[in-house]
Amino acid sequence: MPELVYYVAASIDGYIAKPDGGLDWLASYEGGDEDYGYAQFYKSVDAVLMGRKTYEQSLSFTAWPYSGKSCWVFSHGSTKNVPSDVVVTTQSPALVASEIASRGIKRAWLVGGGALAGSFQSHGLITEYIVTIIPVILGDGIPLFAPSGSTEKLRLVEAKKYPDGLMQLRYLRSE
């Protein structure tokens, strides 16, 4: 199976977006000299996986942010403006993980959202978690994980503190 990495930013109260999916709370941390390891991480993945709402949020950016990467969008609804390198699927996370492995993909980024991450986590498919904690309290929003009822023990392998108060935590599944 390929490595599946949940690389995500979260508020200190555990939200990855505002209730409406908004990410404007991240704007003051973007565009500066510090990329928080993003460029190096992005080079390390062969594919991206995301839910429909995350996909639609991505379409609002000036340019498609996942150029050059194979992309799977999990959706039970209709999707618009699908580029040729994007696969829209209704398959389970386990079936897609098998499919990407059969295509020779070694490492994939689980971009979001929280419901999809909860589904991957409950099936034991996430091999690495990289969570950047943003020093903001949102009070409400889309949680880091949708409730799955599944407990998973993790092992901290790296913690990096940035001068602007961000903290990046990297965990691997405990075997």
Summary tags:
globular, alpha/beta, 4 helices, 175 residues, 10 strands, 19% helix, Dihydrofolate Reductase, subunit A, two-stranded antiparallel ribbon
Description of the structure:
This protein is an alpha/beta fold and about 180 residues long. The protein is about 20% helix and about 30% strand. The protein has helices at about 40-45, 50-60, 95-100, 115-120; strands at about 5-10, 15, 45-50, 70-75, 85-90, 105-110, 130-135, 140-145, 155-160, 165-175. An 8-stranded mixed beta sheet has the order 5-4-3-6-1-7-10-9.
CATH top level class name: Alpha Beta
The count of strands amounts to 10
CATH homologous superfamily identity: Dihydrofolate Reductase, subunit A
Radius of gyration computed on alpha carbons: 16 Å
Q: Mean pLDDT across all residues, rounded?
A: 92
Report the CATH architecture.
Answer: 3-Layer(aba) Sandwich
The succession of helices and strands, N to C, reads EEHEHEEHEHEEEE
Shape, per Cα inertia axes: globular
Low-confidence stretches: none
Treating each run of at least 4 consecutive H or I residues as one helix, how many helices? Answer: 4
**Terminal Cα separation, in Å?**
15 Å
Strand content: 25-35%
The biggest sheet, with number of strands, parallel, antiparallel or mixed sense and barrel status, is:
8 strands, mixed
Helix content: 10-25%
Which structural category do the helix and sheet elements fall into?
alpha/beta
CATH topology: Dihydrofolate Reductase, subunit A
Going across the major beta sheet, what is the strand order? 5-4-3-6-1-7-10-9
Number of domain units = 1
